[in-house]
Design a protein that fits this description.
CATH class of the largest domain: Alpha Beta
Shape: elongated
CATH architecture of the largest domain: 3-Layer(aba) Sandwich
Strand content: 15-25%
Strand order of the largest sheet: 2-1-3-5-6-4
Largest sheet: 6 strands, mixed
Helix content: 25-40%
CATH topology of the largest domain: Rossmann fold
Number of strands: 12
Structural class: alpha/beta
Number of domains: 2
Length: about 250
């Protein structure tokens, strides 16, 4: 039996078990299982491994993408560069961390072909990254790769460039690409949304939400009402999961 799974604090919103169960069934892998492991604290991680010796791989979600790193034996260079892990390979009693959120976010932002320039101007507008957790690190990595300047919004100035109370219409006029990496609006709290002056959004804005459940969050809906282009996180979920599956298959050889 080959067993995989997802670790996080609360996993009621997750589609991962359903996704990988369908992947295994599609390719006829009846001896593969995928389970959800809710950990109250990341310090429970070693016991999880000790009590589930058949585990060969894990995905990692909120809030442990950064916190899990000290518990791993090795990091893939990309995961080390990003500073966050969302995929783990377990082989011969050792653990190695990878980051597939980078590939997932590239799949979201690549096809959008967002024009971040005003007509008649060579000055690029900036992006606003909402949140400063593990997913935010992957987003920041891709934005740097693309040459897009950005600012990070966090509850603390130690984690970001701006705090939430500083976001005003002037900032939104400059930051026309807005990416939500927080869990705000995720099941079961679907009425929540990042505290932004949504009336300042225009048709020149593009909003990306990494939340995928529900498919359209309040954040995206309010952007759409102002004419902004919107993209949900389901495509990123599938792309990063496919990348994780490739990593696990390669490790199993």
């Amino acid at each position: 039996m080959q067993r995989y799974g997802l670790i996080g604090r609360k996993l009621g919103h997750s589609f991962s078990k359903d996704h990988f169960t369908k992947v295994f069934a599609k390719v006829g892998l009846k001896d593969h299982l995928y389970d959800l492991f809710e950990l109250a604290e990341i310090s429970d991680f070693p016991d999880l491994l000790k009590n589930n010796l058949e585990l060969q791989g894990l995905n990692v979600t909120i809030p442990y993408k950064e916190d899990v790193i000290p518990y791993l034996d090795e990091l893939d260079p990309l995961a080390a560069a990003v500073g966050a892990v969302n995929t783990i390979v377990i082989k011969n009693g050792r653990t190695k961390g990878y980051n597939t959120d980078v590939a997932g976010f590239r799949s979201l932002i690549g096809p959008m072909a967002i024009d971040l320039r005003d007509k008649g101007s060579d000055v690029k507008a900036r992006a606003l990254v909402l949140g400063s957790g593990g997913a935010s690190r992957a987003v920041a990595f891709v934005l740097r790769e693309m040459g897009i300047r950005f600012r990070i919004v966090s509850r603390s100035r130690e984690r970001g460039d701006l705090t939430w109370d500083l976001i005003d219409p002037t900032i939104l006029r400059v930051c026309r690409l807005i990416i939500n990496t927080t869990p705000l609006g995720m099941q079961p709290d679907v009425k929540d949304a990042p505290p932004l002056p949504y009336a300042a959004l225009t048709a020149k804005h593009a909003l990306i939400d990494l939340v995928y459940n529900p498919e359209e969050t309040v954040f995206l809906r309010q952007g759409k009402e102002q004419g902004a282009k919107t993209v949900g996180g389901l495509g990123m979920l599938n792309a990063q999961a496919d990348e994780a599956w490739k990593i696990w298959q390669e490790a199993a050889k």
